[in-house]
Design goal:
The chain is of the alpha/beta class. The chain has 16 helices and 21 strands. Bound molecules: zinc ion (ZN) and copper (II) ion.
Length: 484
């Protein structure tokens, strides 16, 4: 008879591939799935009766800014409580490594932490710090273009010289050798916006040989979004690397209704190259407060402000009225600050979320005192609200978008599927009750319906809360098996 550590009996297995669920038992040993099948006979140290609940691969949050959170708050409750077992950090051009600061972190690296939190001059020192911290979830990481620019440039409002690009590329190579998944950019932000397409193309040269990916918060998500998509795909084509468009959206009132056009552009690219995107299930974004996004037609909520911390939680309209100034002037006085922008149409978000090329990524901001609810709610909201209640896609497809698809695209070898020999990253949940509870007015609330979460075979979270065991690892890049 088979010996195992944990036997999960009587469960409905959603294996991560998008196929119909099957009733089965799943046995775990030494951090791996050692058997899957009906009525398994094995001698288990612990047996769990799942009472017919759903068992899925642990969710992979492909778009996070948890770079410093995984070290400073290794319990990672916002993510673990959603069933997330792996976070991909280093998105939007900002990463905790490789970074050497001279002074304060530039916008939007300040979303990740304070100057004192950036202690990783090489990618290898960062992976060592993750191992020392022992977070509750696995961590995989991109290296950020803006971070590299800041390491080598005296000012960020210009394009890098050939010599500066070479220096940045050297650091990117170090990161790739130490296991980075690829390169991210945040070309929309002031501190990367002056970079030319050629700067990014030349920086991204080492990605192809490494089998790594290019992820981008594009140069525009408003009027010029199609140009920005064209640029992103061109960077991928010229380098023969897959492209992940981060948090694909149609932002700004004047762009509402353009999601079909945008998805057609994505589909056209997918006929020629490997390309996909991620999306969060909300019609509001969040980042640092950007004067270019101040628009009286859009409700903007301030999440933090260094000179005026007392106004956090108020709308910009309310603050402007009480100061008797325009919203733009109020936004200037609040700098540096963070904001939630209700700048998207629900219909566009739903269409993008439902597309077959779309993965789920929270884009949560763990450092915000009043975070966008996506930090705590994204995955249960996709499963409960958009799959179960609104029937945007069936449950197995929802699971594929958050497990198998991202594991293949990012080269997370041996993860993302419930298969013999795969890592025992698992989430047991009730498909009838799973739902997010975090809201814009009350954003720090764990989801309902998550029964148990295992990370590398270790039971880490139950409906009663964290178990106290933290079994996350740094996940170096494996081979990408991008299938579109
Ligand atoms: Zn972004
Ligand atoms: Cu982001």
């Amino acid at each position: 008879m088979l010996n195992c550590d944990t036997l999960i009996q009587n469960t409905l297995v959603l294996d991560g591939s998008g196929t119909a669920p099957e009733r089965a038992d799943v046995a775990l040993r030494d951090g791996l799935i050692c058997e899957v099948g009906p009525a398994l006979k094995c001698r288990a140290a612990e047996t769990i009766d799942a009472r017919g609940q759903a068992l899925a691969p642990g969710f992979i949050d492909v778009h996070t800014h948890d770079d410093i959170a995984v070290i400073r708050t290794p319990e990672m409750l916002p993510k673990l409580s959603q069933g997330v077992t792996t976070v991909i950090v280093g998105n939007c051009g900002i990463s905790a490594a490789p970074v050497t600061l001279r002074g304060e972190p530039p916008d939007p690296m300040n979303l990740l932490g304070n100057a004192g939190d950036f202690r990783y001059p090489t990618f290898a020192t960062y992976t060592a710090a993750i191992r020392d911290a022992g977070p509750a979830v696995n961590v995989a990481a991109l290296a950020g273009h803006t971070a590299l620019r800041n390491n080598h440039m005296d000012r960020l409002d210009r394009s890098a010289t050939v010599g500066e690009v070479a220096a940045m590329r050297g650091q990117l190579e170090e990161a790739l050798n130490a296991g980075a998944l690829g390169l991210s950019t945040g070309l929309a932000y002031y501190n990367a916006n002056a970079a030319t397409t050629e700067e990014v193309v030349e920086l991204a040269r080492p990605l192809a040989a490494a089998g790594a990916v290019y992820a981008t918060h594009m140069r525009a998500e408003t009027a010029r979004i199609l140009d920005a998509m064209h640029e992103a795909f061109e960077i991928g084509r010229l380098n023969h690397v897959p492209v992940v468009v981060s948090h694909l959206k149609c932002a700004g009132v004047d762009n509402w209704g353009r999601s079909e056009e945008v998805l057609r552009a994505l589909e056209a690219a997918r006929k020629m190259q490997r390309a996909g995107c991620d999306c969060y299930p909300y019609a509001a974004g969040s980042s640092t407060l950007d004067l270019r996004q101040v628009d009286e037609r859009v409700t903007i909520m301030i999440t933090w402000s260094t000179p005026h911390p007392e106004v956090a939680g108020n709308t910009l309209a309310h603050i402007a009225a009480s100061w008797n100034v325009s919203q733009l002037e109020a936004a200037r006085r609040l700098q540096p600050a963070g904001a939630i922008y209700h700048s998207m149409a629900e219909e566009d978000m739903r269409r993008i979320l439902g597309h077959t090329a779309t993965m789920i990524g929270s884009d949560g901001l763990p450092n915000d005192p009043r975070p966008h609810p996506r930090l705590w709610g994204t995955f249960p909201r996709v499963l409960g609200r958009y799959s179960r209640e609104e029937k945007l896609f069936p449950l197995p497809e929802a699971i594929r978008k958050m497990t198998g698809l991202p594991a293949q695209r990012f080269g997370l070898a041996g993860r993302g599927f419930i298969r013999k020999g795969y890592a025992a990253d698992l989430v047991l949940f009730d498909p009838e009750t799973i739902i997010d509870t975090a809201t814009f007015s009350d954003p720090i609330r764990p989801a309902h319906g998550i029964a148990a979460v295992w990370v590398n075979g270790v039971l880490s979270y139950t409906a009663d809360g964290v178990t106290g065991d933290r079994a996350g690892r740094f996940l170096p890049r494996g081979e990408t098996t991008w299938m579109q």
